[in-house]
């Protein structure tokens, strides 16, 4: 079959694939329910063929930027079909690409399988909320759902800073401005700095990638705004340490004080193939910052956060291993997958051997 980028992307949509990978000397590869699958009906991609199909959907300006920076992020739409988050890169001197499918419909938190407590994030008046997890764990989807709740229920000025824009929001009860890196602004840090002059109530930062972006995000939350962002971390305590460790030693105590004063909640999630391997379900860890955890952040005792969360289940806190145990007991995931994805095998076994109630 002739290799054409739109044909490949339409195939992804029809097969409900989450990702498409294009690399020289390989056939196109798609990811379905977390599993990579080669598309046998297409030819092996030569450098010339891959150059032709990838350059066909970007303009001269993007081509120039790509050749200068050797990386390119952008979004691409097929009319009446779907949207994709695209990344071009080089490997071994040849072009390669990854496409992530973005559904046009923003799902509710209930449809995503998230705890009811997450809905409360949309009612916070101020502070910092982080959604964390590995790449492909649905962080952007969760944030889009929370922003949509705010958009429907509150009269606010919402500003999002994304790279690239994934979900398109329309003005409802709120007004919403979506800014894309390289198209509407130069960087997360720059957009954040100027956002404070744009009279925002709610700010969504697509990713806290570097020291300046993290610093500006904390400042925005500290000055009375409700700020949402993401990090590639695996648990709540690690999230605290990751933020603090990126700063120089001499300023870390000040950052601890800022974080203790502004952080409201950390949601960590991962998408796991279901028992039938025909879909995925979400497992979560949820930490809301109470006075005890706030003191632990301030007093360099993040190693005690896990214990504090375990004893705060009535406040809606949830451990990742407890979430996995629930999914396993409900028959939604396999035992093998639960133990592969857990943080602590002994903890998971203990939960499985006990009676518990989770959302």
Describe this structure in words.
There is one protein chain. By secondary structure, this protein is of the alpha/beta class. The chain has two domains: 5-102, Beta-Lactamase, CATH 3.30.450.90; 109-318, Rossmann fold (3-Layer(aba) Sandwich), CATH 3.40.50.300. It is built from 14 helices and 13 strands. It has helices at residues 5-15, 47-55, 60-69, 109-112, 139-153, 188-195, 211-222, 236-245, 252-262, 291-298, 305-310, 320-329, 335-341, 345-352; strands at 19-23, 29-32, 35-38, 71-78, 82-91, 94-102, 127-132, 157-162, 175-180, 202-205, 226-231, 263-273, 280-288. The strands form two sheets. A seven-stranded mixed beta sheet has the order 9-8-10-11-7-12-13, with helices on both faces. Helix 6 packs parallel to helix 7, helix 7 crosses helix 9 and helix 9 (252-262) packs antiparallel against helix 10 (291-298). The N and C termini lie far apart (48 Å). The model has no long low-confidence stretch (mean pLDDT 94).
Query: Tell me, what is the CATH class of the largest domain?
Result: Alpha Beta
Q: What is the string of SSEs from the N terminus onward?
A: HEEEHHEEEHEHEEHEHEHHEEHHHHH
Q: State mean pLDDT (0 to 100 scale).
A: 94
**Helix run count:** 14
Number of domain units: 2
Please sum up the structure shown:
By secondary structure, the protein is an alpha/beta fold. It has helices spanning 5-15, 47-55, 60-69, 109-112, 139-153, 188-195, 211-222, 236-245, 252-262, 291-298, 305-310, 320-329, 335-341, 345-352, and strands spanning 19-23, 29-32, 35-38, 71-78, 82-91, 94-102, 127-132, 157-162, 175-180, 202-205, 226-231, 263-273, 280-288.
């Amino acid at each position: 079959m002739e290799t054409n980028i739109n044909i490949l992307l339409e195939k992804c949509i029809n097969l409900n694939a989450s990702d498409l990978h294009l690399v020289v000397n390989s056939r196109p590869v798609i990811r379905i329910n977390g599993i990579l699958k080669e598309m046998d009906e297409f030819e092996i991609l030569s450098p010339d063929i891959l150059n032709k199909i990838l350059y066909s959907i970007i303009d001269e300006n993007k081509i120039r930027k790509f050749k200068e920076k050797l990386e390119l992020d952008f979004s691409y739409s097929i009319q009446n079909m779907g949207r994709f988050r695209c990344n071009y890169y080089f490997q071994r001197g040849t072009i390669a690409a990854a496409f992530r499918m973005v559904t046009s419909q923003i799902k509710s938190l209930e449809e995503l399988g998230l705890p009811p407590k997450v809905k409360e994030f949309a009612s916070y008046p101020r502070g910092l909320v982080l959604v964390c997890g590995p790449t492909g764990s649905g962080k952007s989807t969760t944030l889009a759902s929370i922003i949509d709740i705010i958009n429907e229920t509150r009269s606010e000025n919402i500003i999002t800073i994304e790279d690239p824009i994934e979900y398109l929001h329309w003005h409802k009860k709120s007004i919403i401005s979506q800014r894309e890196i390289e198209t509407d602004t130069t960087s997360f840090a720059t957009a954040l700095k100027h956002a404070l002059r744009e009279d925002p109530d709610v700010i969504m930062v697509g990713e806290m990638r570097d020291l300046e972006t993290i610093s500006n995000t904390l400042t925005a939350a500290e000055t009375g705004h409700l700020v949402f962002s993401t990090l590639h971390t695996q648990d709540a305590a690690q999230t605290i340490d990751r933020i603090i460790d990126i700063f120089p030693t001499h300023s870390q105590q000040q950052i601890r004080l800022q974080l203790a004063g502004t952080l409201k909640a950390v949601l960590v999630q991962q998408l796991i193939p279901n028992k039938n391997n025909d879909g995925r379900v979400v497992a979560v860890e949820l930490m809301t910052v109470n006075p005890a955890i706030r003191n632990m952040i301030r007093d360099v005792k993040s190693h005690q956060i896990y214990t504090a969360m375990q004893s705060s289940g009535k406040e809606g806190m949830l451990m990742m291993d407890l979430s996995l145990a629930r999914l396993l007991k409900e028959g939604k995931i396999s035992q093998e997958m639960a133990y592969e994805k857990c943080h602590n095998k002994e903890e998971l076994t203990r939960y499985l051997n006990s009676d518990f109630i989770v959302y």
